[in-house]
Design brief:
single chain; about 650 residues; mainly alpha; 30 helices
């Protein structure tokens, strides 16, 4: 028997030990990844109540879900980007242990904790510090520093705001009371944002993951190609339609760019669009996916919770503004394609609509079920999403070609993907809970509202512009959900105080928070698109995206001044507002792109833009002048095109 040298034996044992550690680590990661969706479903359906007649506090469920998600984050996402994600350090394991102690303490003993919450203890104070640190570190790993810095600013303001003079002064609070509230207060870490994320948004993420993993993503993309591929600038229009479909399900502009952009951006470049323009189209279309009903990401559900209204009301009010956003984008892409002299995609390269529908119509059934249970049966959104997910499983179990895709491995894959998809959502919402709680605790929301109102001097236009700028700046570098939560408590109250409908005020700041994804200098969707399109300048791409999203910057002002545009008011008034809004956006697009029936000169473009502004001013006189001007402009463009046609015809005859 051959005996290995001692140093070789030691190395072999170390290698074997490392392999065993890796196997254990992978098992724990998989166990947590599978457990998270199962536990979420367990509590959305409220199994403890139905089976055991046990009613649990929301905080007990939320703390358990936060524990599992945060533990998985520390096991999968490294401390810094230069570390290999496959290797875990000792401090990652320590953090996981701390997470279980902090989280399960609330899960198991919350009823007793609640009875003693009025008298802060040293133990709760220490646990509060640990919870605060763990939330911020998990957020830093998942979403970066911006949210961490904002939370720290709010905490310091809550602690030292009592020494600030004037309107922003707060009451004194001890460190013990502060961290106990952050950790155990019902409106803080385990408050509205995390509750909505866990009980509502999770269901839609599971629905999206299931339908995409089983082939629904390919079907939606081919469907978009079959509908839009035949038109001038077809690949760009496919990108818009596909991104709106995917974005509405995911609610993440960056994830949408990464998912659909890998296919659409190369197609657009191949057609003739520049790398900057192709990237800008994808970034703008993906950003719009966040404002498109019925899902609209997590922010729409949180908005309904803040306003105390039905989610369906949010969808109804948000629908037409979202359609106008995409109308402006479609028109601008079409005009740019005409300006570049693009030809249509050859018919043989476009999937047949009938064949696409024939092979994938089954994926429309879960979408129909989701809409039915939401808008007809009026089920809770989270439960409705589970019905939709169950429908996906049932209908794909029938046809043989889909049934063969199902396996235990596929199910595990879907559950793991869902767990990864809610990393950012759960951690960001836990941190956002700190902000929401501190805003109410310190009263800074009302104070900032008074400051903005005083600066505006009672002018809605000035206040709206200030709010739009504030919303865009505060939203930069942050996920849309976190940006909306911050803006809802800081910026929206000022508009409401000036008489704006609460739902419109929240929708206004939601739009500008979402548009921060393409507004420089921090524009995450643009960065993602630039890396795929290989654009020479991210800033150039960002400005092109802003130009393409001009409707998005205008639409919020339209429904702020004309609530009927968002279907608030009489039917006749709504029809009139929609008609004028559509004409204004198309006119704006013509002026921005510089093409109508032929290429426009600079002064012609300026005239179109001025006429569009006239149509947007809420006076019947300006509306009348604007409509007459649009008619005259179109008439002159027809004459101009005919003249150009005769000249080219004469030129060809002379030759």
């Amino acid at each position: 028997m051959i005996r290995l040298p001692s140093h070789v034996q030691i190395k072999y044992l170390q290698l074997e030990n490392n392999m065993n550690k890796q196997i254990i680590l992978q098992f724990v990661q998989k166990f947590l990844g599978i457990s998270i969706p199962i536990i979420a479903i367990f509590f959305i359906i409220d199994i403890p109540l139905y089976l055991f007649n046990i009613s649990l506090f929301n905080q007990q469920y939320l703390s358990l879900l936060w524990t599992l998600v945060t533990a998985l984050i520390f096991l999968t996402i490294p401390f810094s980007n230069d570390k290999k994600s496959g290797k875990r350090k000792w401090y990652d394991i320590l953090l996981v242990g701390m997470v279980f102690v902090v989280g399960l303490y609330v899960t198991i003993w919350y009823p007793k904790i609640l009875l003693q919450l009025g008298a802060p203890s040293k133990f709760n104070f220490i646990m509060g510090i640990l919870a605060f640190f763990l939330v911020l570190e998990s957020v830093r790993r998942v979403a970066g520093w911006p949210i961490v810095i904002i939370v720290l600013v709010f905490v310091l303001y809550a602690k030292f705001g009592n020494i600030i003079p004037g309107i922003l002064r707060t009451r004194y609070i001890t460190w013990s009371r502060l961290f106990t509230q952050l950790y155990l207060g019902s409106d803080f870490m385990f408050g509205i944002p995390l509750r909505v994320a866990a009980l509502t948004v999770f269901g839609f993420i599971l629905f999206g993951s299931t339908i995409m993993k089983i082939g629904g993503g390919d079907f939606l993309f081919k469907l978009a190609q079959s509908l839009m591929g035949r038109y001038c600038g077809g690949p760009a229009k496919v990108s818009v339609l596909a991104s709106s479909l995917f974005g509405s399900l995911s609610g993440s502009a960056v994830a949408n760019v990464a998912g659909t952009g890998m296919i659409t951006i190369p197609l657009m470049k191949k057609t003739g669009f520049s790398s900057s323009y192709a990237g800008a189209i994808e970034a703008t279309a993906s950003t719009g996916g966040q404002i498109v009903p019925p899902v609209m990401g997590a922010a729409a559900f949180i908005m309904a919770e803040f306003l105390g209204i039905s989610y369906i009301n949010i969808v109804v009010v948000a629908l037409l503004p979202a359609l106008l956003y995409y109308l402006g984008l479609f028109v601008q892409i079409h005009l740019q394609a005409k300006l570049l002299g693009m030809v249509r995609t050859p018919r043989h390269e476009i999937p047949s609509f009938k064949e696409t529908l024939k092979t994938g119509w089954i994926f429309l059934i879960p979408l129909a079920v989701l809409i039915f249970v939401l808008f007809v049966l009026f089920l809770e959104p989270g439960l409705a999403a589970l019905y939709g997910t169950a429908t996906v499983v049932l209908v794909t179990m029938v046809p043989k070609k889909f049934r063969s895709l199902w396996s235990l491995g596929k199910l595990v894959e879907i559950l793991m993907q869902t767990s990864r998809a809610i990393f950012e959502l759960i951690t960001v919402c836990a941190a956002a809970g700190f902000i929401v709680g501190l805003v109410g605790y310190t009263g800074i929301g009302l104070s900032l509202s008074r400051v903005l109102t005083n600066i505006a001097g009672g002018s809605l236009l000035i206040l709206a512009i200030l709010t739009a700028i504030t919303s865009t700046i505060l939203g930069m570098g942050m996920p849309t959900t976190a940006a909306y939560i911050l803006l809802a408590v800081l910026a929206a109250p000022a508009l409401i105080n000036l008489g704006i409908e609460p739902i419109l005020a929240h929708l206004f700041i939601f739009y500008y928070g979402a548009l921060s994804m393409i507004t420089p200098p921090v524009c995450l969707a643009v960065y993602a698109a630039a890396s795929i399109s290989e654009a020479p300048s991210q800033l150039k791409l960002a400005f092109k995206a802003m130009k393409l999203a001009i409707a998005g910057y205008i639409v919020p002002f339209i429904f702020l001044y004309e609530p009927s545009f968002a279907l608030i008011g009489s039917f006749g008034k709504s029809i009139s507002s929609i008609f004028l809004g559509v004409i204004a956006i198309i006119t704006f697009a013509i002026g921005i792109e510089g093409y109508c029936l032929s290429k426009l000169k600079i002064f012609e473009r300026l005239i179109f833009i001025c006429v569009a502004i006239l149509l947007l001013i809420p006076l019947w006189q300006t509306h009348l002048v604007g409509l007459i001007a649009v008619t005259l402009l179109l008439f002159t463009q027809i004459i101009k095109k005919q003249k150009i046609g005769r000249q080219s015809l004469c030129g060809s005859s002379e030759k």
